[in-house]
Specification:
Blueprint: E1 5-7, E2 14-16, H1 20-29, H2 36-45, H3 67-86, E3 91-96, E4 100-102, E5 130-139, E6 144-150, H4 156-175, E7 180-185, H5 196-210, E8 213-218, H6 228-240, H7 249-257, E9 266-272, H8 284-288, E10 292-294, E11 302-305
Parallel strand pairs: 3-7, 6-9, 7-8
Antiparallel strand pairs: 1-2, 3-5, 4-5, 5-6, 8-11, 10-11
Helix pairs in contact: 1-2, 4-5
């Protein structure tokens, strides 16, 4: 076993590529007759067990943020959340869930049934009836989710339109005269801190039309799993439709809307048929029209966008 065993010298974790049957065979050649089941039991006593890969290591970033800077950002986000919730102001966590093919395709997970569900043997996009792009808004105070299911592309226009739809249908009724909203987002994607279109759309399609000040805090690179929407909403949706092919859009919407938890989570969903296009560029002149104030400690991770109607009082 020695030459076929590897391990982590720090954690003490060990592994081998040999099966129990092969180990039993090798022992037999050495004059030790033992069954594969006995080998498995002995290996377990030696802290061996069947393992899978665990995604717990941060991938190599070109310019990884300083650990102290990351900690300060998390503390800053926590203070912002507490400050807004204390004043009964909306705090929403936003992100795009993984893209799904609509059709009789394999869906990860298991569910109770009298027999296996037959699905296509390959996930070819050409066989799909369309794509589902769920953009989620999770309301921290209300423990409620709102998901816009797009049918074209995940763009910043789609992201901000989804937030605007949430505000029209839910937010403004729940929070009445609230004049500002805190948005928690990842550092990349359609709502990334480097995306010009994201900031521009927040100005012209959200802040200006609704007269709201939007404060945005981005989680540091490699820290998206701490974004509340990931463990408060998306994981429960994935669990709800586990093992169930998303045969059509209505099926996808049904599973999203029927997602509940013992903690009281409720989810609304709507289908967005508007066609969005990729590659839209924002000019320097358009960026200059954004009333944007950057905050500390990391100015590009924390900023506020103010509607033009409040420009006189903006400081």
């Amino acid at each position: 076993m020695e030459e076929d065993t590897a391990g982590d010298p720090i954690s003490g974790c060990k592994w081998t590529h040999k099966t129990t049957a092969k180990v039993a065979h090798q022992l037999g050649r050495a004059g030790i007759r033992v069954s594969a089941n006995t080998v498995a039991r002995l290996l377990k006593q030696m802290d061996f067990s069947l393992r899978v890969n665990v995604k717990c290591l941060e991938s190599g970033l070109r310019n990884p943020p300083d650990p102290e800077l990351r900690d300060r950002q998390f503390r800053y986000i926590r203070r912002q959340i507490q400050d807004h919730l204390r004043q009964d102001l909306p705090v929403i966590s936003v992100d795009t869930k993984s893209r799904e093919l609509i059709g009789n395709f394999h869906q990860t997970g298991t569910r109770w049934s009298r027999g296996p569900i037959p699905v296509l043997d390959h996930d070819f996009p050409s066989d799909a009836d369309g794509v589902a792009i769920p953009y989620g808004i999770y309301d921290l105070a209300a423990n409620e989710g709102f998901v816009s299911v797009g049918t074209s592309y995940d763009t910043s226009e789609f992201a901000v339109d989804s937030i605007g739809t949430w505000w029209t249908r839910v937010g403004q009724h729940r929070y009445g005269g609230a004049g500002r909203v805190l948005i928690l987002a990842d550092c990349g994607g359609s709502n990334g801190y480097r995306t010009r279109l994201w900031k521009y759309q927040l100005q012209v399609a959200f802040c200006d039309p609704f007269g709201l000040k939007a404060t945005v805090c981005h989680y540091p690179p490699g820290a998206s799993k701490w974004n509340p929407i990931e463990h408060k909403l998306f994981c429960h949706i994935s669990h709800n439709w586990a093992g169930q092919p998303l045969l059509d859009y209505e099926t996808a919407l049904k599973f999203i809307r029927s997602t509940h938890t013992a903690g009281g989570l409720k989810v609304r969903a709507s289908l967005v048929k508007k066609r969005y296009t990729k590659g839209r560029k924002i000019t320097d002149d358009q960026m200059a029209d954004i009333i944007l104030k950057r905050h500390t400690p990391r100015k590009d991770w924390n900023y506020s966008i103010v509607p033009w109607s409040q420009m006189r009082s903006y400081s």
